Each structure stands twice: as C-alpha cells, then as structure tokens.
Amino acid sequence: MSCSRKDFDAVNGRILTTALLLLAGSAGNTDSASKAAPKQTPMGPVKVTWQGGFNYTASRLRVFGSVHAQAENYDLQAETVTIALASGPRKNAIAGATADGTASKQVSGLFQQVADGAKRVIQVHGDHAVYRPEDDRPGGGRVDFTGHVTMTILDPKALHGPAVAVTEPLTVFLGRNAPGKPPKYPAIEGGGGSLDVTPKP
Amino acid sequence: MMKSWLCAFVFVGFLLPVLAAPPSKNSAPSKNSPLSNVGAIGVGARGSLPDPKRPGTFLWKFTATDFVAQGLDSGARGYLLHVNVTMYDKGVASTRLLAPKAQADGAAKTVIASGRVRALSLTQKGTVLYADRVIWYAATNKVLAIGHVFYKDGKSGMMLESPSMVADTKLRTIRSANPGNGNVLFPKGF
Hints:
Chain A is mainly β.
C-alpha cells in the first residue's frame, strides 16, 4: 500500500496517524497518549556517552561529539545534546532535552516495543529533536522530531519489510507499559506526509 | 632548637626558603640513605594562606597528619600526607579537599593533590568530585581534575565521569578539560 500526501492532507494527517498507530499496536490511543493517565514511575536509568566534551552550569548539561543516550526503551544518537536537569522532588531525572544533528548526520531515535511475542522497532531520523515531560502524564514524555523527518517501522509479524513514512513533524510518546497488558508505548503521532507500508494478510 | 624551627616552618608555609636553616646532624640522613635530601619529617601540620585581596580572610587552610620537608639547604620544599584542605572562594569556605598527598605553593597560590583525591562541596550538600590528581589554582578560581574523574551534583543527582575536567572552586560549574570520551548517568531517567 502506497499512500500519497494528497490523500492525507484533507484530514490533516489523521489517517497517517491512525495507520502508524495501528502498526505500532496502539490503535485508538491517539488521544489517550496525551491525556492524564495513572501515575507512572520515572523511566530510567538513562546513560549518555560522548566523544567530544561537555560543559555544565546552572543545572544545564551540554554534551557533544557522537552523543549516545541509552535507556530501556529507547536509543538516541546525535551530535549535540543539551539536557536540563531536574531537582527537588524530581532529582536524578531529566527535565528536558534537545538534540541536534549535523548536515551529514541527523538525530536518530530508536524505539522498540514488545507485544504478542513480536518485537516492533521504530526508527526516526530528523534534524532536531526535543524531549519534554508530559505535565498531565507523570513519568512519561514526548520527543518531537523536526527537520526532514523520516520514520521506519520494522514489524516482522505484521509487515512485509519496513514501513517508511516521511512526515513533519513527528512525535513519539514514551511511557512505561503496564505489565500483562497490551503495550501503549511508544505511541506515534505525525503530521501530513506519506507512508509506504505493506501489511501481511 | 630544631623543635622551635619546625613549629615556625609549619605555620608559615613549608616552602618558604627563608626558613631553610641548616639542619642539625641529627636530622640529616646520610647520602646513601633512601631519605637523603630529606630535611625533616614530622607529625602533624597545619597552615593557612591569607587572601591578599581580602584582609582577614584566607585562600586556604590545611591540616595534615604528616609532612616531609626536603632540600633545606637549597630551598625548602616538601609535601604533606593525609591532607585536609579547606578551599576558599572570595573569602568563603567553599570546598574541602582530602588527599593522601599534597603540595602547596604559597607564591604561585596553588595546591597539587595526588592519590585518590576527594573534593567535597561545603556550599551544596552532596556535590563531590573524585580524581587521581587535582591541581587547584586559587588565584584564578580553577580546579583541574585529572585521571578517572567522577563528579556528582548534589542538587540534581547527576553523576558524570570523564578523563579530566575543569571546575570552579565551588564545584558548581564544570567542563571537559580536553576532548575525550565521557559519560553521565541519570538514575531516574525522565
């Protein structure tokens, strides 16, 4: 199935959004992803490595040079990452972050979801990415990708080959999935664009 | 006479050449001794360096369990063992430096600490810096940490590792000293 931008623009990308969510196993959860949800535990730990250098002042850490951020449910690579640190009750956590690529190397986010014995891998590329917590969803957050955004979904169980979307912007909602229940995260919301996908029967 | 000389030496600063009185036979070991050129070895030391810009305050104060003074006939120098240095920033006690070994230079206003050095912030609870070697440039408010450097920010909980880093005396602002790998851990993610 190959869908053009013209087909989707009329409904402001909702079809694209729904298609992506179906593939991600989160049908009908577009709205719930951003609504208030039961309190969740913070998603950690997160380890960030770099090869260039860093500077830290006034609760703001900037790292550069092949930056790699790894956590249980995501893997992000960028050239420069600036992290705002939380304090007080949210100590030991990240309050927000921005990631920037270069002309030759975009920001890359790799997210995965395990459901029904199958693992779905979602990779997003963009020139910039901004993470921020969700005020109405404690412990969760969203990553907004902008600038020449492309998304690739690998789901060997549901798809023939990778599904590729070109969209702008694209948001990945992160959160902790409840054990024993169908996973809600990561959830994806995109703007207008195109999607190239071949589902399995 | 030796005892009084040693007391004066300790309190004024053990690197000042003016105190390099010729050692007595009892304190000068033979040339073949592993302790040759050691002028004095003592137990217990304390000292301070006044801040020339802020009369009545200090750049640093230190205590040590042991000291070794060398080269008394050619210019006093030496080092302290098991050192506890209070580092001042603008007249305010800011950081405590603990080290197995340290040297201080009153003229250059530097302290060089080695062994596994620990720097503990006195103004922000829980902020610490560990390194194999620390050089503190008191006059320019710069702390250079070298070798297996670990930093923890008491306010945010951030833990950072790097081959080397530069910090201010208060350990509030840090940056990499040279290009190189590093990592930081956020236990709770976001």
